[in-house]
From TrEMBL:
<protein>
    <submittedName>
        <fullName>Nucleoside diphosphate-linked moiety X motif 19</fullName>
    </submittedName>
</protein>
<dbReference type="GO" id="GO:0005739">
    <property type="term" value="C:mitochondrion"/>
</dbReference>
<comment type="similarity">
    <text>Belongs to the Nudix hydrolase family.</text>
</comment>
<keyword id="KW-0479">Metal-binding</keyword>
<dbReference type="GO" id="GO:0046872">
    <property type="term" value="F:metal ion binding"/>
</dbReference>
<dbReference type="InterPro" id="IPR039121">
    <property type="entry name" value="NUDT19"/>
</dbReference>
<keyword id="KW-0460">Magnesium</keyword>
<dbReference type="InterPro" id="IPR000086">
    <property type="entry name" value="NUDIX_hydrolase_dom"/>
</dbReference>
<keyword id="KW-0464">Manganese</keyword>
<keyword id="KW-0378">Hydrolase</keyword>
<dbReference type="GO" id="GO:0016818">
    <property type="term" value="F:hydrolase activity, acting on acid anhydrides, in phosphorus-containing anhydrides"/>
</dbReference>
<dbReference type="InterPro" id="IPR015797">
    <property type="entry name" value="NUDIX_hydrolase-like_dom_sf"/>
</dbReference>
<feature type="domain" description="Nudix hydrolase">
    <location>
        <begin position="16"/>
        <end position="266"/>
    </location>
</feature>
Length: 384
């Protein structure tokens, strides 16, 4: 059971936009021995403006739509400072022939940067635009990350803090927000290189075809040794929080914030890792596995609706990703459906807002399954 073959789907007839999102995992400072702490890290979540065209009021990880400037060959002049002269030098050439995420596998015009490079530039640029966090470093520092990547070793990220003043950084943030090509200009003037090799692939979600606004989004993850200062733009983003994965889920269950299914799923996935070192080990194991895009399929039952992913017994044998797929229906209650099925990879939404996230299947390419969630158990603050 999988998505239909996409070899003949060109950029011109794709009815979605491509995007990159970055899950920033920051190490919490040590706490006194007598204090108990389940996780030693937090995730950055930004709250979108209610005026936003996309996902108004929702809390998201930093990220956005890829821009032509992210593919520009002009970046090569900057990357020459770390010894990169040709495409193979970036370090992802060995992934050819392996299953890849949708945006990475998509064909491009000749003369553009490789997809692995451009989408990481996009994720770093959008993160800077929305949060002021610049994941870039001096050439010697980034060369070390490139070396670690070639050795198949995890490379932690670091934040550039060398703006002359905070005001200068904010002005660059505004300029890049207005014109994505200014990101390269800024990096050149600062003498820094985006640290692409500190970003690791996490997942790839394609919006269901029944939506009028579709995105093929590649989720990356990186780790930081300290929690950086965040300066939101107060345009696209109007709030921010550093939360553990469980805190994010609990706040959503209590309607204190809103997470969409992809963000909720990534929080649930990270619930399996209590220490930042475990996140790093998982990311290192995954770096050469590859992945394939996932597209949820919506099905109505008698008393609720479900969003199923591949591996679920209710997922169709073949799903055309470039054509409208109407909402399916099964003449069963959720209880009847759960008794009939054995393999679950789904999100269940009840009319009263309660939901369940269930995954009992082994995911391909060594991907960690999200922790199962029943929102009714997470609403009571004393339970978790």
């Amino acid at each position: 059971m999988s998505l239909a073959d996409t070899d003949n789907i060109t950029l011109g007839n794709r009815n979605w936009r491509e995007a990159a999102t970055l899950v920033i995992v920051a190490h919490d400072p040590p706490v006194p021995q007598q204090e108990h702490r389940t996780y030693d890290y937090r995730l950055l979540l930004l709250q979108r403006s209610n005026r936003s065209r996309s996902f108004p009021g929702v809390s998201v990880f930093p990220g956005g739509v890829v821009d032509d400037a992210d593919f520009s060959q002009n970046w090569l002049e900057l990357f020459k400072h770390i010894g990169i002269q040709k495409e193979e030098d970036f370090g992802w050439d060995h992934m050819k022939g392996k299953p890849r995420a949708g945006p990475i596998a998509a064909p491009r015009e000749e003369g553009l940067l490789p997809n692995d490079v451009a989408f990481r530039i996009c994720a770093i640029r959008e993160t800077f635009e929305e949060s002021g966090v610049l994941l870039a470093g001096r050439p010697t520092e980034v060369m070390q990350s490139l070396f670690l990547r070639r050795e198949k070793t995890f490379a932690p990220a670091s934040v550039f803090s060398g703006f002359a003043t905070e005001e200068v950084g904010v002005k660059w943030q505004q300029r890049v927000h207005k014109d994505a090509s200014q990101f390269l200009v800024m990096c050149g003037q600062l003498g820094v290189v985006p640290n692409l090799w500190s970003l690791f692939e996490l997942s790839n979600i394609l919006t269901p075809s029944l939506s009028s606004r579709r995105f093929d989004t590649l989720f990356y993850i990186c780790t930081l040794e300290t929690v950086p200062k965040v300066i939101i733009d107060n345009k696209e983003m109007v709030g921010m929080q550093w939360l553990t994965p469980e805190e994010g889920i609990k706040k959503h269950c209590r309607q204190e914030m809103t997470l969409f299914m992809p963000q909720l799923t990534e929080c649930a996935r990270l619930c399996n890792f209590l220490k930042i070192s475990e996140v790093q080990e998982y990311s290192a194991r995954q770096m050469d596995q590859g992945m394939e895009p996932e597209m949820p399929v919506v099905i109505t039952l008698k008393d609720c609706y479900i969003r199923v992913l591949s591996g679920d017994d209710c997922y169709p044998e073949s799903v055309p990703i470039d054509k409208f797929v109407p909402i399916g229906s099964i003449d069963e209650t959720v209880e009847e459906n759960m008794k009939r099925c054995r393999n679950f990879n789904r999100f269940i939404r009840m009319p009263n807002g309660d939901f369940r996230l269930i995954c009992n299947v082994k995911l391909p390419f060594g991907q960690q399954a999200p922790r199962c969630i029943d929102s009714r158990d997470w609403k009571n603050k004393s339970k978790l």
